UniProtKB/TrEMBL annotation:
Signal peptide: none annotated. Residues 5-130 form the Glyoxalase/fosfomycin resistance/dioxygenase domain. This is VOC family protein. SUPFAM superfamilies: Glyoxalase/Bleomycin resistance protein/Dihydroxybiphenyl dioxygenase. It comes from Nocardioides nanhaiensis.
Length: 139
């Protein structure tokens, strides 16, 4: 397997919901591992069923990972990260943009950009920022 970058998203108690949502958007195989599955790892009892790790493998080039940050780690909060989706499959990218916007907000409509492609930005219902660029201008 060639090297790749795997975005790792952190959540506060809703990682399973978020990762299941991303699976509904992108498809793929979702694997979940709970703190309880790993012997508890010092996480409070009320958080044992939260996700210690998850991975969503969509294709050889797309994989998302995510986990809940336990309350015992208040210093670890969500980072201000933007994930970028790009390519020339207009139908797929527009579909992903529209699905990610459900329950979220469109910060930049998916429209023709000055560089000739179609570009948009959406913040999904979990606060994750997505940049979508359709090469070649789209329609």
């Amino acid at each position: 397997m060639p090297a790749r970058v795997n975005p790792y998203l952190q959540f506060r108690g809703h990682a399973e919901e978020a990762m299941t949502f991303y699976q509904s958007v992108f498809g793929g195989d979702l694997n979940l591992m709970r703190f309880a599955d790993m012997g508890g790892m010092g996480v409070p009892e009320a958080e044992q069923q939260q996700l210690m790790h998850s991975d969503l493998v969509v294709s050889d080039s797309i994989a998302l990972m995510g986990a809940d940050v336990p309350s015992t780690h208040p210093e670890l909060d969500q980072y201000n990260v933007h994930l970028s989706l790009s390519g020339d499959d207009e139908a797929q990218l527009r579909g992903w943009f529209e699905r990610l916007a459900e329950g979220g907000s469109i910060d930049v409509p998916l429209e023709k950009a000055p560089w000739g492609d179609h570009f948009g930005q959406v913040k999904d219902r979990y606060g994750v920022n997505w940049l979508v660029n359709i090469a070649g201008g789209g329609s």
